[in-house]
Amino acid sequence: MSSLKRMRLVLLSALTCLCLIATGWLSPTLGRAAASLSPSTMGHAFQANTSDVFLGEALNSNLQQAQSVLMAQGAASTSLMSYVAVMSEENVVPNSPDTLARGAVGAVLSDNRLIVRGSFKNLSSPMRSYESDPVSPPNPSITSAFHIHQGSPDENGPFQYALDVISDPMGREGSAAGEYTLTPEQLDALSNNRLYVDLHTTRNRGGELRAILMPY
User: Fold this and answer.
1) Helix, strand, or coil here: 88?
2) Minimal CB count within 10 Å: which of 72, 147, 183, 201?
3) Model confidence pLDDT, tens digit, residues 92-123
């Protein structure tokens, strides 16, 4: 992994913690650990993002929704593992697009069952339609433009799942949801920070937002 990609992962992990602290999701112990990473050492962009109310509220809401689904299905709260992804255009490979879009994903795992909830806003254009603009060769499993892939931060890895997306009439903001039974290979990828989420638009067909699913 390049040093630049590694630094981005560190910054986004810290941002995720601070957003969750702001909404009261993380424990005081984790809060103190994240607070030790001062914004002054992380650059102006990071300072701006930590004040983004949308990210904090979206992460909180998405995690709560995902957890509620599993608990309604009989999972014990003590058995759940949570993952978050603060989506950024800077993570898109190979080139970062020009966009003001933001996205946040919360996912909760129980055994091999993964519940995913996502939110996005300010897309540069409507989401890519894989019916009118398919990949080559076409893949019938790609039913939306919000995906889970397997791969490291500096590569475009193979498609795994598509999320179900609900967007506003303009197609610029909305929510996403998915429920998946992970294979042993996918569970290993998740535990080793090798599952990522990305979002594709008509203007940025190869990806507008992207982030690794990170535990906390």
Assistant:
1) strand
2) 72
3) 999 999 999 999 999 999 999 999 999 999 99
